[in-house]
Every structure is written in structure tokens, then in C-alpha cells.
Amino acid sequence: MSKRSLDNEEQHRVVSAKTDAHGAPQPAVVEEPDIHMGEYEDQYSDEYESEDDIVEIGDDEEIEEEGDDKEYIDRKQIEAQEAVKKDQEDSVQQKEIYLPHMSRPLGPDEVLEADPSVYEMLHNVNLPWPCMTLDVIPDTLGSERRNYPQSLLLATATQASKKKDNELLILKLSQLSKTLVKDDTEDNDEDEDDEDADSDPIIENENISLKDTTNRLKVSPFASHGQEVLTASMSENGEVYIFDVAAQTKAFETPGYQVPKAARRAMHTIRNHGNVEGYGLDWSPLLKTGALLTGDCSGQIYLTQRHTSKWITDKQPFSVSNNESIEDIQWSPTESTVFASCGTDGYIRIWDTRSKKHKPAISTKASTTDVNVISWNEKLSYLLASGDDNGSWGVWDLRQLSPTTSDGVQPVAQYDFHKGPITSICFNPLDDSVIAVASEDNTVTLWDLSVEADDEEIQQQTRDFKELQQIPPQLLFVHWQKDVKDVKWHKQIPGCLLSTGTDGLNVWKTISV
Q1: Which of 39, 328, 336, 349 could cysteine-pair with 360, CB 3.0–4.6 Å?
Q2: Taking every annotated instance into account, which residue ranges of this chain make up the domain Histone-binding protein RBBP4-like N-terminal (predicted)?
Q3: What span, in angstroms and rounded, lies between the C-alpha atoms of 103 and 98?
């Protein structure tokens, strides 16, 4: 029996002993001569009016009982306070912060739950098949959109178990509400009002059948400025398809509109790669007519441009003839003939499309393993970020590179925070110091490179919290998503990100950015 139960039982026994007439102790009876006290005298008055009797049965014990009750209440209050404090500590211990380089691996029955208080918006989209890649479709709803509910367009492509089941998905997500953190003290009426305002998101889709799994997908940055919405997809079978999905986006805005059959077919197919699949794919941000670079696993990069109404692919590829896979390609944001590539040989290369030899102008060894992804800073065009198979990522200052000094150049910033290969990296187009990094360790991290480690506030926080000593001060946020493969910023919704993994799509915005 617990101590609390014992105390309650003893208290009950004391009260029973005092209130039970049959169990009360009887006072000693002293025989005295009968004295007439009048007709209203109580025949039992001698027992209870005797001063000795009152002292023996009543007053002192009642005073003592009142004192005991006060002590009992004080003790119970202290116990209750201690119990509440312990519950709070247990709650904090149960809600562990998950960090890939510090936390233990999740067990088979364990899942991570997002803390809604650190998200301004968080929505999960379940799809019939996993998608390895996605991209944002620019719209005409304006920029700097901060009011809720939000609406956006995106393109993605499936990785179905059967090739014939694969599709290019054009999605419209609307009624994306702000994440509401309920306060327990709110009235029921206020909760009902919030529920009315927090309507369910709406998903609309238009699908295009594909022949194979899509490795990489990119939407032209000029999609919202004309009548076309050019979208390119690179498949496992080596073919690259160019679609105009303007009709699909029109169907979202025009009730009853039927997408023409011609709009469900590719307007052009690039077959120069043969049957060699690839992952390098990028639209030029400067050539509005359309210029597309595609790189495959044999190290060949082809340039396809549109001339009047025809798409023409150069017969001679850009290559260093080492048969190493091209993992990613990025056009320069400021020079229309310059692009960068990375590959399994660990090199980052800078190319110029005007080169008659189709050889790189600059090559620098960036990693001892595969360099999987790169991102060119749109605001600071001399910064290029890269991520490799070891989970390491860094930022390069291209001003330090030249044909004669590229060897031995080190990144201006480098981090080994992730514990799995980097699968995607993307500078924030609206903030030149913020970058998103996705990894096979099931996380997407957000970083602010403008934070300095010697800042007094940062140093004080590090001294106060030992856990922070193992966390780079530039780290802003860690978002968990299973097998995340790709992440993109939405240029028209500040701070909004879209990411894809085996558990579907995430649309999210943190309070940190």
C-alpha cells in the first residue's frame, strides 16, 4: 500500500473513532447526591458539561485535529506541486529534439512528430506512388504572398512499380491554411470559429502518361510570363521529354475546360543520350526562347535550343571523356553562355557554350566521392553550393577559381552535419544567405550563412546549453521527411518550401525563415 493511501486510511480511522457513538470512550462515573436542577435539565448533562470530560473527549483533540488538517493540506499541496513538476520534466524528456548527428536511430515502431509551434505552415500530400523530383510552376497570383490561405502550382513525376503506370503530375494546391497552435485556455466558441476558418486544403490534378520513371524534372522559369508552361523530364530510358502544360494549368482556372489530346503528348523528345539515363537537367534563366541542358551517366552533356518553332540539339556533347556520370547541372544566373556541372568523379566544372572544343573552362576537385547536387546563388552569382555522397556540403567562391589556380581551392564554408548523402541543395532565391539542404538521413536542414560563430549571443547560448556545442550556429531548422529526394523554394511565397520523399510531398514554412 502506498504512503498516500495509508495516510488517508489513518485519517479516516481517526474521524470514525470520534464520530461513532458506540465506539467513543466512556468517561468515569462519580456517584454524587441527586440535586434538583429544574424541569429543563438534561439527564445526560453531567457527562458532557464536566470540564474534565470535555478536555478528555473534545476540545484539545479537535484543536489538534485542526492543526493536523492544516499540516495535511500543506503536505498534499507540496506533493501535488512535485507531481506536476515531475510530469513536466517527463513530458520534456519524451519530446526529444531529433538531430541526425546526435540522436539515436528510430526504432521499428517509432515515428517523429512535427512540433506545430515551429511551423507557420505544414501540409502533407499523399500520392499513389513516390516521386523523386518536383518543381514549382510560377503563377500569376503575384509575389511576396504572405496572407493565408495560400495557393500554388507544382509539377512532379512518379516512380511506379510498373513503367506503364508512371505519370507526370500537374497539381494545384489551394486553401493551404496557416498552422494553428491551439491554446487550452481558449473558449469553445473561439475554437469553433477557428475550425470554420481552418478549411480543408483542396488538391486538383491533371496527369500525363509517361513511358518510364522520371529521374529529374524542371519547369521553365518563364512559365508564367507567356502562353507556355515548358516542363522537361529526364527518364530512366534515356529520353528527355519537353511538355507544354499550359492547358493543364488552364483547366484549374476554367471550370469545364477539357485538356486537348495534343497537350497530353510531349512537344519534343531528346534522344541524343541513347538508352543512357541521366540526372543533369536545367533550363536557362536568361534565354526566354528556351535553352535546356541535359547530362547523362556516361558524362555527356547536350544543349537543346528552340529556333523559331523547332527544337535543335547540338550533335557534339560537352564532355571530358572520362565516362563518369553527370549528377547535376546549373546555368549561371547572370551569364547566358555559362553553366556548371558536377559528377561522380568528385569534380565541379564550369563550362562555356561558346567553346568549340566543348571542354570545361575550369575544373576543381570538390570531393573524394560523388558530388550529387549543386546550386548557383541567384543574388550573389559568385557563390556555388555543392553536396556529396559523404553527407558533406559546402559553398564555393568562384572568384577564387581560374584555369591555373583551381587545384587546392577550398570552399569558403563547409559542413559535415548530415549523416547520409546529400540529395538536394537549393539557395533561397529571396535571401542570398539562406540555403536548404536535403539528405538521405531523412532530413531537410535550413542554414543561414550570415550568422557568425563569434557572435556574443551565440557564444552565450553555447555556454548555457551544452547540446548547442555540437550544432553549427548557422543551422536554423531541421525538418524530418522520410527518404527525402528533392527540395525547392517557392519564389512567390517567401520562406515556403516544397519537398518530396517516399511518404509524399511536404509543403511547409518555418518560423525561422
Answers
A1: 349
A2: 109-176
A3: 6
Enter the pTM of the model. Answer: 0.78
Q: Is 74 helix (H, G, I), strand (E, B) or coil?
A: helix
- Whether residue 52 is contained in a domain is answered as no
CATH number reported for the structural domain that contains residue 401 in this entry: 2.130.10.10
pLDDT in tens, 160-180: 999 999 999 999 999 999 987
CB 385 within 8 A of CB 433: no
Looking at residue 21, the DSSP 8-state letter turns out to be T
Please report the sign of the dihedral spanned by the C-alpha atoms of residue 287, residue 352, residue 215, residue 478: negative
In sequence order, the 6+-apart residues with CB closer than 8 A to the CB of 171 are 125, 153, 154, 155, 156, 203, 204, 205
Give the H or E element holding residue 6: helix 3-19
The pLDDT, as a whole number, for residue 122 is 96
Sign of CA dihedral 301, 305, 311, 316: negative
Q: Are 30 and 10 in contact (CB under 8 A)?
A: no
Q: Picking from 100-104, 139-143, 329-333, 343-347, which range would have the lowest pLDDT averaged per residue?
A: 100-104
Could you tell me which residues are beta bridge partners of residue 498? Answer: 488, 507
Task: Please give the backbone phi and psi of residue 232, each rounded to the nearest 5 degrees, phi first.
Answer: -115, 140
Look up residue 99 and give its DSSP letter.
-
Is 400 a member of any domain? yes
Contacts with 147 (C-beta within 8 Å, 6 or more apart), sequence order: none
DSSP for residue 399 = G
94 lies in some domain: no
- Does the pLDDT at position 316 exceed 50? yes
The pLDDT of residue 312 is 97
Whether 48 is covered by a domain: the verdict is: no
CB 281 within 8 A of CB 301: no
CA distance 279 to 421: 16
Give pLDDT, residue 26: 44
Going by C-alpha positions, the residue among 433, 438, 443 that lies closest to residue 98 is 443
Q: Which residues face 294 on adjacent strands?
A: 281, 302
pLDDT band of 452, cuts 50, 70, 90: confident
- H/E stretch holding 278 reads strand 278-283
* DSSP, residue by residue, 349-369: EEEETT-SS---SEEEE--SS
Domain of 139, in residue numbers: 122-510
- Confidence band for 57, pLDDT divided at 50, 70 and 90: very low
